[in-house]
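pasting for ref
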Amino acid sequence: YPLQQQCARHCVHFARVASSTAGRGGIIGRAQRGLFAGKRVLSGHYISFSDKRTNRKWKPNVQSKRFWSDALERRVRVNVTTHALRCVDRAGGFDEYITQTREAVLDSEAAMRLRKQILEARARKAAPSSSSSPSA
């Protein structure tokens, strides 16, 4: 493996993205339905005392959370990693995180769908309504 990190009794391999997943940004499966903030499954080995290597995986810490969206005026249920939760807090809220984070970092179909809904809702609120204005 070209990228490798040795740590205590474990050996971690940072797998390269397969060309078949390149169309979806290299993230596959459940990560497309949540906010993973760049976290992904890592693979490697347990290394025993006798130096026998057994395959293992490190999965991201994913939690199911509900966020209040001011723009949509409803709660949004989404699977997020704990790293993404800290990113949401740092950005100043769910709507700000979704709208201000680059697409390459979000890297999720669900996040892009939410971004589109939030931006459309903000545009509807910002547009002056013609029905409420008095006629001359």
